[in-house]
Batch of 3 targets.
Target 1
Amino acid sequence: MEAENHTEVSQFLLLGLSEDPELQPVLFGLFLFMYLVTVLGNLLIVLAISSDSHLHTPMYFFLSNLSFVDICFTSTTVPKMLVNIQSHRKDISYIQCLTQVCFYMFFSGLDSFLLAVMAYDRFVAICHPLHYTVIMNPRFCVLTVLISSLIISWEALLHVFLMLQLTFSACTEISHFFCDLPQILKLARSDTLINNIYLYMATALLGVIPITGILYSYSQIISSLVKMSSTVNKYKAFSTCGSHLSVVSLFYGTGLGVYLSSAVTHSFQSSSIASVMYTVVTPMLNPFIYTLRNRDVKGALGRLLSRAVSCL
């Protein structure tokens, strides 16, 4: 089949996680359940933080933003997969695929930046407590999120612009359950050198730089904890970092799994399973990690649910 110009490509075909017809109802039910849990859990955290004045602090401001981004991150990929399973179709339009690539890059990058900023917040709170309110003032927090969003949006849009220059065969099959950029680049009929170079640069910007900041912040935090004489203060400081460390480990651990599975193996099932952990399971578990380890969030959720029940 001859290559067609990218403007003539009307759709791609998403092969999904499995082509076994008997597994489709199971996959639909499983992913629908995980998606609903993800949306409900993260939405409850956003509502609890916004409705409780005691949680109007920088740490919980970033947590509410992280929960909102997790909802959007999962919503970028899962609903389309559910629609395709339910309708017994595999197609995704060219425009929908571009949109999915753009938002996937944006929300995954923003997740990474928010985790880095949250680590910095804990670093300032523990290592420079007397200057915390001055450094982590509301204006700084809002500007940090806005500037991060602006930088990452330009990065995501440039990915889309470079993808628009590529050519594909008609009805190109993507061995994934969503439009994963590395998979798409492998299927392009035109030269993808510039795309791959930019992809590696963006990965370094959105992966290496934030994780370096996180590692530096926690190295300073650990150094400060060692110097503390009070066991109570050590436990209190560690408890505020425990949830964040768990989320960071889960996010970057599964992200590394996606990268390694794509680089080491050519099996699309292995890559897809790793991507499920990264795009679906991690955002679903984040609310549970924070609520189970954080008394303030649990208290706010309890008060929110009590008010909701009393209004019924």
Target 2
Amino acid sequence: MRTQVGIVGAGPAGLMLSHLLHLHGIESVVLECRSREYVEHRVRAGVLEQGSVDLLRRTGIGERLQREGMRHEGIELRFDGESHRVPMTELTGRAITVYGQQEVVKDLIAARLAAGGSVLFEAEAVRLAGLDSQSPVIHFRRDGRDEQLHCDFVAGCDGFHGVSRGAVPDGVLRTYERTYPFAWLGVLAAAPPAVDELVYANHERGFALYSLRSPEISRLYLQVPPDEDIAAWPDERIWAELRTRLETVAGWSLNEGPVLEKSITPMRSFVVEPMQWERLFLAGDAVHIVPPTGAKGMNLALADVALLGDAFAAWYGQHRTDLLDGYSAAALRRVWRAQHFSWWMTSMLHRLEKDDPYEAKLRAATLRYVVTSPAYATSLAENYVGLPEV
């Protein structure tokens, strides 16, 4: 097989890049090791920054998003038995939209296939070769056969565990990472949300988050130890702990319902530099991971490939190399801004050290400052809805 840009991974990054290249008249093939059903139903992030919404709409992917996405103009912070709203749109003129990552993936797959795009599911990339030549090759397996995809460039959008990052020679990449001393227990429940906007709760027993997926589905999270066993959390215990951490405001209660899905996700920060080597360009979780507190993961992936799409368009259309050469530096400016914001939100809202009264007082002081200082509230709002340029 032969194409111009070979893309490994059919998540939001890989699919959006393929869509952007199509709009510029550039051919691509997307290889995805999982089935179409799996990637279209894999529950992940659900908060889109203003810039991500604008990108989807501008490129013709926003019809269902416009109809079903839930626009939020603020978030709520709960602590010390009080509730405080951060009016993001009032402070910044921008907003967020709740629309699940799996819905973005469905929309992008539908658009690529409708346009005759090549998205190969259950095609596992096993090795990248010739990255330092003008004809890289992606070796992959499909239907029990070994196949090859020859291309001009390779875009590695295959996540943390994919093969792309590992194809870079030793000594080229530098890794920066931090592991947090807690995890998130996430629950998807068939319960109408009892809130109109996301609620971030700081509690002496740990952090909790009340999020939404639809008018009928709630997404909720609890801070738990990093080595927690999901079997130790039957539904009754989950709802009891959610009530303890969230029902701290007089007269308010959450809605309960059947738990459709639950999982435990460790929390970490991870960045690899540079995000490119020779004819390989990396994007999304393949090169950076943030704790989900700041809702940046999918948004960073889309921002990466927006840059990369313009860079490939300049190379093919105008024979310019400057945007491809500068891709990593440009992307990392936003990545590190998001890393800092995600770390800050995580530190402010979670119990970092068990039974540490000093640390608890610092969290409370920071939260109090956020809700009483217009400048600090604006900073939170600007970062949460997404800075237009970094």
Target 3
Amino acid sequence: MNTLSEFRSFTGRLEDTDVLMPALFVGHGSPMNGIEDNAFSRRWAEKGKEIPTPKAVLCVSAHWFTRGTRITAMEAPPTIHDFYGFPPALSAVEYPAPGDPALAGETAGLLSSAGPLLDHDWGLDHGTWTITRHMYPDANIPVLQLSIDHTQTPGRHYELGRELASLRRKGILIIGSGNMVHNLRMMNWHQPEGAYDWAATAQERFSTLIREGDAAALAHYERLGPEARLAIPTPEHYLPLLYVLGLRGSNEPVEFFNDRTVMGSVSMTSIQIGAAGA
């Protein structure tokens, strides 16, 4: 158990920069995107070149759903293969990016209201490495993960995102990794491209609210109609979006990319908060 005084001992170790790092929400979709050369993975690689090179990456992954908030704090986080039924080539992938225990401590200090724990047992799951291995293929930038506390409300996750905002000025790229529309039970394996009508309606509603900056409505997604409830049958893939929306400053631009839906019910729609090199 880490004490609040231990967290505070890290505060201020990272210096501010002249650049406000953008923040990303990335629709990660199938783990196969981690090894495939396709439109989605190519756009991730382009993003890695378009935005400033970060000092480190902090990823909120849909695939680390915990009781309480945890932050990876090891020197060398392992690559986690948290899936089954895929080709052996996917399970053979290793992404040996270093960790950053000092950044983990400083992040914990920013989130002290959540009573976070520094974690030495998890690593980088496919919600993280399938994206970062395209953005930063040399694995030479430290990567940390932040878990999603399933006991908290969506609004609380948005507030935790706001508490992390100062990291953007310190050169840290924060990524929320999930999918806005994510209903695996209703996937149409015979329709690799395109959305069900309800999925398209839900995605357009989410996108409009993001453009309008209405985070309160997005935090209460269950009130956005039956289409939204179909889009989010369980919250873990949606909640990373709220962290990223919490990072948005007043009047900051939002760019949409990979704005497509696959197999009827999985949206790859992604957003960038802030301008590259702002």
